[in-house]
Amino acid sequence: MKIHDYLSTEELKRLGSALLLVLGFIFIAAFFGFTVVPGLRYQAHTSPDPAIKAVQGDTGWLDPTDYPAAARQVIPPIDPRTVMTPNPALMARGQALYAQSCATCHGADGKGDGPGGAGITPKPRNFAVKGTWKNGTRLEDIYKTLDEGIKGSSMASYSYLSKKDRMALAHVVQSLGSFDHGASDPKALANLEKLFASAGEVIPNRIPVSRAIDLLCREYTEAHPGGAAKPSASPLP
Questions:
Q1: Domains (ranges, CATH) in the chain?
Q2: What is the DSSP track for 46-84?
Q3: Entry pTM
Q4: Run means of pLDDT, 10 residues per run, the chain, 237 residues
Q5: Helix axes 163-175, 139-148, angle to 10 degrees
Q6: Rounded to the nearest 10 degrees, how much is the dihedral formed by the CA atoms of 86, 104, 35, 208?
Q7: Are 146 and 136 in contact (CB under 8 A)?
Q8: Residue 31: CB partners within 8 Å, gap ≥ 6?
């Protein structure tokens, strides 16, 4: 038996077109997942002002906020004295970052009770309880977690943040646990200071996700001039 015994040539053509369309949408979903969505979480280090401003985007089905375009930045090395010890400006920046990027899962007070963490396994960390900190509670431990994430959990790496922003966030996260965090490892702290002082950073260009979707739709249309349905940037019902 051959497939032609069951389907006509016209039916085979329609089946082939449908399969190509499905593969196209899978490719687009993968593109969003690996390139567009991670960019939403990036917070540009543009000024000492700790406020993080976001505007309502056109793609509420993907994310309720959209961030303005930001040009590529070259950030010089950091004076370790400005980040190793918490200060008002650093803490204000860290609190703004925490509210934007962490509170949804970890909760406003860091107790792991944020609405975004309801369906996550394992549950988001409760920073108020010492025994629940997987990688340790010292400053260098928290920075390592932010830098690398935690494998096997929903805790992703925050390496897209500048080193100074990661340090600001580390100070705020540590402050949510009102217990003795133990003495830091002098060698680990020295390595952090060397990391901050020895090399600057290059932060790539960023565009709003709605603009990225428009560009992707245009590229898809150009690649499928035959009239295949293109993905829509409109919110899903």
A1: 1-46+208-237 (no CATH), 73-203 (1.10.760.10)
A2: -SS------EE-S-TTT-SEE---B--EEEPPP-GGGTS
A3: 0.57
A4: 61 73 75 55 40 41 53 81 92 93 91 88 88 86 92 86 91 92 90 84 75 84 71 46
A5: 130
A6: -90
A7: no
A8: 216
